Amino acid sequence: MRSHCRSVHVVAVGCMCMMNACAGSDRGTLAEERITRGDTTIVRSHGGSVWDSVALVEELRIGVLQGAEEEMFGNVQEIAPDRHGGVYVFDGAVPALRHFDSTGAYVGTLGAGGSGPGEYRDAALGLDVRPDGRVLMRDPRNSRINVYAADGTPTEHWTVSSGLFASDAMVVDTAGHLYLKVMLGDIVQNQPWPIGILHLGPTGELIDSIAPPTIVGEPTTSSGIFGTSKVWAMSPLGDMVAGVNDTYTFVIVQPDGRVVRIEREHTPVAVHPDEHAEWEIRNEWTRKNRGQFMSAELPPVPMTKPAYREFSIGGDGRIWVRLYVDARQEEVEPAPVRPGEASARPSITWVEPSVYDVFERDGTYLGRVHLPDQVSLAAHSGSEVWGRATGDLGELYIVRYRLDAR
Question: Would you say residue 217 has pLDDT above 80?
Answer without folding.
Answer: yes
